[in-house]
Write a structure and sequence with these properties.
The structure holds two protein chains of two kinds. In chain A, 64% of the residues lie in helices and 0% in strands. By secondary structure, chain A is an all-alpha fold. The chains are: A mainly alpha, B alpha+beta. Chains A and B meet through helix 4, helix 5 and helix 6 of A and helix 2 and helix 3 of B.
């Protein structure tokens, strides 16, 4: 038949899943899953603030447990809090970039979340650490929901599409 | 010589699309998130047994997690691998599962189809938004009429339906006749070579229940989908003198199966084609 070139394989080869997307214009409507993912990421940053509050209020006790020798305890506290603040600021900036449509920011957040989830999974399955409401269930749930939202097909298509034409 | 030349020219063009690192990472995270979601659902379930009365609330959270996040993600991973993506006379749900069968075809313009359905007493369904979804939940619980209730998205040719029509039964949103329409791509022919402009899937929602595959709350459909198909054809024919119908007998083999919500379906496999091209519709050139 003359239309032989129109025939195609019954199943797509698996490698087609990994091909670069054909260039398409970005739809105007931002997918709701992206907004949810960015919000969860902001929630994670807010969770970081509670860690700082916990550190400062519980410092006298923590200081004794750590058995710091040769360093000024106040300096250690400043360094830890400084690092934590930097982490929160980074998370907020990345959440904002992600919401604006940065694919690099999205991949970075997904990679970090993936590492965090894997760490929890290793301590749960290998070391038998308990994950309950009183320990890290909420943090883990935030991470997993964030990863689910950001890996959504709509989000992927939207962030990987070209910017809308002017 | 000439024939050989043509044969070379008509060979399909070589695919030149390249493998993308972003795509590989995205596929990895897509699957990893699915596995993590199952683990989280399990953690929520075990936690719900430890918390006494509060455990009931946790069990609800577990169900939402499982039905609306974890299972749909797993279905999307697996159906992308094993459900064929070309036309087999079945629509697909947004999770990739096989949905309602295509059991009706139409020839005619967009305006002619809208005119014919409106005359036959069908109501256009509202698009699915947060507002309309909330309204269908509240009106179903209160058994209040909502004649423009949205219908869930089903996909054909990789697209959500272009429009959906419905007829509420006895003012109760749990029961309704409904039919979804998809415009066929240009120059697209049915298996066998017949040209049609629209394909449709008509089913009767008989109650609200749980989906067998995702455990989500959804409409359950009547198993005998041929009755609904014939109802659509009969109402359109009765209200539109200019409409004609021809039937592709045994378009598909008669079969028993399940739709995307796990409800039984059975059909004789006939495909009626409504011809609306002689209809005078407002806003249409004809």
């Amino acid at each position: 038949m003359t239309n032989a070139p129109d025939k195609r394989y019954a199943t797509e080869p698996a490698v087609s899943l990994f091909e670069a997307d054909a260039p398409t214009a970005r739809p105007k409507q931002r997918p709701s899953a992206l907004t949810i993912g960015a919000l969860l990421s902001v929630l994670r940053a807010i969770g970081g603030v509670s860690v700082i509050v916990g550190l400062i209020t519980g410092w006298p006790q923590l200081q004794n447990e750590l058995e710091l020798e040769g360093v000024e305890p106040a300096t250690v506290l400043k360094v830890i809090v400084g690092l934590q603040v930097a982490w929160i600021v980074l998370l907020l900036i990345v959440s904002w970039l992600m919401w604006r449509g940065s694919n690099a920011a999205r991949l970075l957040v997904m990679s970090l979340t993936c590492v965090s989830i894997t760490a929890s999974a290793i301590s749960y399955f290998a070391s038998g650490a308990e994950i309950t409401v009183h320990t890290t269930l909420l943090t883990l749930a935030l991470d997993i929901l964030m990863l689910l939202a950001l890996s959504d097909r709509d989000v992927r298509a939207w962030t990987r599409a070209r910017k809308p034409l002017p | 010589m000439g024939d050989e030349h043509t044969a070379i020219e008509t060979r399909p063009p070589r695919r030149t699309r390249r493998i993308s690192v972003t795509a590989i990472l995205d596929e990895f995270f897509f699957v990893y998130a699915g596995l993590a979601a199952i683990w989280l659902a399990w953690l929520l379930l075990t936690e719900s047994f430890k918390l006494g009365w509060l455990g009931i609330a946790f069990f609800l959270v577990f169900w939402v997690m499982l039905a609306y996040l974890a299972l749909p993600r797993l279905h999307r991973i697996f159906t992308a691998i094993y459900v064929p993506d070309y036309f087999i006379g079945r629509t697909r749900t947004s999770d990739g599962l096989l949905g309602d069968p295509v059991n009706l075809a139409v020839r005619g313009s967009d305006a002619q189809l809208r005119e014919a359905m409106a005359r036959a007493g069908w109501t256009l369904a509202d698009p699915v938004t947060m507002g309309s979804a909330w309204k269908i939940v509240t009106s179903t619980i209160a058994r209040r009429s909502y004649d423009r209730a949205p219908v869930s998205p089903l996909l054909l040719f990789g697209r959500v339906q272009d429009m959906a029509y419905q007829q509420e039964v006895a003012g109760n949103p749990a029961k309704r006749h409904h039919v979804r329409f998809w415009r066929t791509p240009d120059d697209w022919l049915l298996p066998g070579g017949t040209r049609v402009d629209w394909l449709a899937a008509g089913t009767f929602d008989r109650a609200v229940g749980f989906s067998l595959f995702t455990l989500q709350i959804t409409h359950k459909i009547d198993a005998d989908i041929d009755v609904e198909r014939d109802h659509v054809v009969a109402t359109v024919m009765a209200a539109n003198d200019a409409a004609t119908v021809e039937t592709l007998v045994d378009f598909s083999a008669g079969y028993h199966s399940r739709n995307g919500g796990g409800d039984s379906i059975q059909t004789d496999g006939d495909l009626p084609i409504l011809d609306l091209r002689k209809l005078h519709a407002i806003g249409d050139g004809s």
